[in-house]
Design a protein that fits this description.
Blueprint: E1 9-15, H1 27-30, H2 35-45, E2 49-55, H3 59-69, E3 75-79, H4 88-96, E4 101-105, E5 127-130, H5 135-146
Parallel strand pairs: 1-2, 1-3, 3-4, 4-5
Helix pairs in contact: 3-4
Length: 147
């Protein structure tokens, strides 16, 4: 008799500063759904995956989480919030890990302030998805599954 062990594909979603306020913050930009509710739906849709979630407003904690999961997870979906445009340290952390990272933005950053048009992280990411609302996360998961 053979025992076959199946491991779930593991994806880590990491949200940065102010994304803990989704659903109450700037609804015209970010919508009125909180992330935890969206995450429930995402986990139901992809019940064959292990989708873990982490949020922090602190740059160093985001880097620590990238280091923690970046060698053992199959992919990372990262919305670094405003750190996208400022953090060389997060860019370096992405470059240092093995897991592919998809940069995600809920809003279309190119329709917003000029400083949001440049990402410090994108060059070290597998890809960037922006402007599809919360569905940007689903599109990132799909890209990790198909590529």
């Amino acid at each position: 008799m053979f025992l076959v062990k199946f491991e779930l594909m593991k994806i880590q979603i990491i949200n940065g500063p102010n994304l803990n306020l989704l659903g109450v913050r700037e609804k015209s930009v970010y919508g009125d759904t909180n992330f935890e509710h969206y995450l429930e739906d995402l986990r139901k849709r992809y019940s064959n995956l292990q989708i873990d979630y982490y949020q922090s407003n602190v740059e160093g904690e985001l880097i620590n989480k990238l280091h923690e999961v970046g060698f053992s997870y199959d992919g990372i979906v990262l919305n670094a919030g405003a750190y996208t445009h400022t953090s060389v340290a997060i860019a370096d952390a992405i470059a240092a890990v093995n897991a592919p990272v998809i940069e995600v933005h809920i809003s279309n950053v190119y329709k917003r302030e000029e400083f949001r048009h440049h990402s410090m992280l994108a060059a070290n990411c597998k890809g960037v998805i922006a402007g599809f609302g919360m569905d940007s996360y689903r599109l990132a998961v799909e890209s990790l599954l198909t590529n």
